[in-house]
Amino acid sequence: MSWSGRLSVTPPTLADVAERAGVSRQTVSNAVNNPELLRPDTLARVQDAIAELGYSPNRAARNLRTRASHLIGLKFNPAQEGTANAAMDRFVHTLVETSGESGYHILLFSGSIADPLGGYDDLLRSTAVDAFIVTDTYLGNPQAAWLTSRRAPFVAFGRPWDNPDATHPWVDVDGAAGAELATNHLLDKGHTRIAWIGWRKDSFIGEDRRSGWTRAMHARDLPTTGLASRVEDTVASGREAASVLLDEAHPSAFVCASDTLAMGVLHALGDRGIHWGQDVAVVGFDDSQVAQVVPGGLTSVRQPLEQVAVELIKALEGLLSTPPVAGPGVLLSPTLAVRLSSG
Amino acid sequence: MSWSGRLSVTPPTLADVAERAGVSRQTVSNAVNNPELLRPDTLARVQDAIAELGYSPNRAARNLRTRASHLIGLKFNPAQEGTANAAMDRFVHTLVETSGESGYHILLFSGSIADPLGGYDDLLRSTAVDAFIVTDTYLGNPQAAWLTSRRAPFVAFGRPWDNPDATHPWVDVDGAAGAELATNHLLDKGHTRIAWIGWRKDSFIGEDRRSGWTRAMHARDLPTTGLASRVEDTVASGREAASVLLDEAHPSAFVCASDTLAMGVLHALGDRGIHWGQDVAVVGFDDSQVAQVVPGGLTSVRQPLEQVAVELIKALEGLLSTPPVAGPGVLLSPTLAVRLSSG
DNA sequence: CTCAGCCGTTGGATCGATCAAGAGGACGAT
DNA sequence: ATCGTCCTCTTGATCGATCCAACGGCTGAG
């Protein structure tokens, strides 16, 4: 056997393949990277040798020479305990699959809340990744400006709320459209007093979603005054807010900025013996697992996270191609997963 | 300026630092990797140069020379839609943090269900990762045998159920102990007719958890006959199973192999107007977000996923050290998150 | 029969780090 | 004064792939 003299743990190299196929190293390299440059019979011979030896190019050597790692950095932000939102899971999965099809892999790193730039700098300077996917844009986005100044390629999941002049590619979901969808769904069901429970005013995303609710209400000349509440994103806050609204505004339906808040509403309704779905309708946001498995099911706005991932990778491929192509931002529309909580 | 002749996008190299500090390349390398070999004043001079230039070793070059990537491969298995379990999220986060502290990063890849080895092979042959963390061991573990035969370092989250002779390191959570904990909790509350709803018999994990229930029941000389059901892991199955058990066996409490099944039980109880928590107690498994936010809260067995991640990394460090150290398997104990569903 | 032109192939240099071995100086022992 | 040892630092080679420029054989025109 040709490998008898080699340690079994050492993978074959380009030179091994070349020798076996009776060609030079460059020819093997071309067979892998530019097959069209070879005569068909030579190509076949090299490919046979590659298959027989089980050759796969050494990543480190290739990375060194080409100055590219084919890795994409992603800061992994876990879902908070006690909330319903574990969107990261669905999103990351598609991201991994889609990037894999383009020859990229996802490299996870972590960073503390105190130092949002931690991790980015290291990976960048050590040329460990080719680009980043930035997801934590909920409260402005210091990373974007920083990465831009470092000339680091990156795409963002989330609009550059605090900087309309930002030039980086981004993909986002139209939260206002989602809330509008939810509200119109309830309006079509005959509800007129529809309450909103959302996040604090300093949340760009929260205000965006809220605007969809007001838009839908005003489009039908319905009042929104006294029907809205802005609280922390916890079940307890949602429960409390719903309780106050039920007492003071007597809504027949709720639209919430998150499934977490919606669960709080369900709790408040349960406290009063109100049958949700029949007496009072509730719609959440994010189509979390909670919305899917709670008895009867919680109607919820579903973000097209799979599509977001695909668009992000598409944008990244543009950025990393030569010459780089930076497309405009992409805004995707959510859908509504209708379940029993809205009748 | 010393870098005036260089393109601003090219990071400084070891040679740049060497020139600036007035030493050789190797000395800079030593300053980074073996500081104790340098005289203190030289070390300081080199470190100053490193700081001034913002130097960070090129990963690709280092990987090529040392034949190590400091990357750990993890196949990302997303949670299934319609189930409650999104444990991956909590687990992966700690994994990323812990591995980061040891200088490792997590590389995600995907693989189809049809080809469970897909992805592993590529990464291994291209020396893209140093080791793997294998998590999908629920139905036997073909990867383990394959990786072992390839002499690929890996650690598993999950016992080698189908192969007691396996020699790879593993970490697992004692599911039997978890179910026993849950059952004893209910027994202590005065329940005697405690039903079990678990998974199909071909699930090693399901049978393990079930054994904890029988052990606890038998320890108090209580019968288990007719009180158990084995179904698919869906809300609908749990609901159906609970309904049948309520009719035929009249249990006052349920222990379930998953939160998904427990949600099915809650649904079945709701169908009959039975107040869960007060009339009938329910305990789930995994302490998912669903368990945490469902009104009143679902008592659930909580796996110490953070600890699992830490132990896995510890085992990996042993495997990757020279000489490799392979410790025995580690079995961790779960805890019980008590909420209103169990009184 | 010669020569330009073309295609596919070749050897050598290169990416940036580490490994292995050696050079030079300081120091104490002989 | 000489030798050997220790300590610190330097030099040249190397990891495995790709880039570059030049080279070889084949073809067809003159």
Which features does this protein show?
6-stranded parallel β-sheet, 6-stranded mixed β-sheet, 13 helices, 15% strand, disordered N terminus
Structural write-up:
The structure is a homodimer of 343-residue chains. Chain A is of the alpha/beta class and 343 residues long. Helices cover 43% and strands 15% of the residues of chain A. Chain A has 13 helices and twelve strands. Chain A has a six-stranded parallel sheet, with helices on both faces. In chain A, β9, α12 and β10 form a beta-alpha-beta unit. Chain A starts with 13 loop residues before the first helix and ends in a 6-residue tail after the last strand. Chains A and B meet through α4, α5, β2, α11 and α12 of A and α4, α5, β2, α11 and α12 of B. β2 of chain A pairs antiparallel with β2 of chain B. Chain A binds a DNA duplex (30 and 30 nucleotides) through α2 and α4.
